[in-house]
What we know:
Elements: E1 2-5, H1 6-22, H2 26-38, H3 42-61, E2 71-79, E3 82-85, H4 89-103, E4 127-133, E5 138-145, H5 147-150, E6 154-158, H6 163-178, E7 186-193, H7 196-206, H8 218-232, E8 247-255, E9 262-269, E10 276-279
Parallel strand pairs: 1-3, 2-4, 7-8
Antiparallel strand pairs: 2-5, 5-10, 6-9, 7-9
Amino acid sequence: MREIQAAAITDAVEQLCIQANRFLPEDIRTAEEKAIAAEPWPLARTTLELLRSNLDAAAEKELPICQDTGMACVFVELGQDVHITGGTLRDAVDEGVRRGYTKGYLRKSITGDPLKRQNTEDNTPAFLTVELVPGDGCRITVAPKGAGSENMSRLAMLKPADGVQGVKDFVLETVRLAGSNPCPPIILGVGVGGSFDKCALLAKHALLRPLDCPNPDPYYAALERELCEAINAMGIGPQGFGGATTCLGVAIEQAPTHVACLPVAVNIGCHVTRRATAEL
């Protein structure tokens, strides 16, 4: 049994909150560079170049790449042979978020109650997802999620008879309804299968997968490419100004489901779909 101090988890989360909000993952940055080179529409290309300039300025001045520093979505893959000492996992993660958002001068956007709307003033609680895995490791990913893209996300309980065409139609309708609101070029996390709640988690978890890592199942990898091409053909473009670059990538995660169900969820990520990971 390996012991991990709660304080080490707090320190890791603190740094990840700051890192994720200041630096875009390299795979997404690379995809944006490729989009600039391939974009035929001058206004769209100029817009993409301005987004790149913003990333450079944020890195140089150690500032957030977006003013909406988001909900702290924290994913922990915890080895089953790990014992956390000196405190609970929940408290350790929340303290890390509290410190990271305070020390990093990150905007605090969490309300303690969805209807009373009083700000917690430290961006806690974190939105924590824990998965028990084999071994004695602890892998932590912080994925700040802004409201502009989160608000455009949707879930539907389709009928099995709707099939793959129903899934495609729902994904494309979601993007059409979103328009420029989620600050395109977007990244889509799509969940298919599971239960009502599992499907939404699949969609959000899909956004953690690097853009250069397609679904390992060739059927779903082909579907990811097809959806991305169809979305880019809509012409929404960067920030909604038109062009060939509306979507940088689509990631699908699938799970078994009930014989009478076909859930599908779409979690939209903006052009700064952020994530940072550390292993303890």
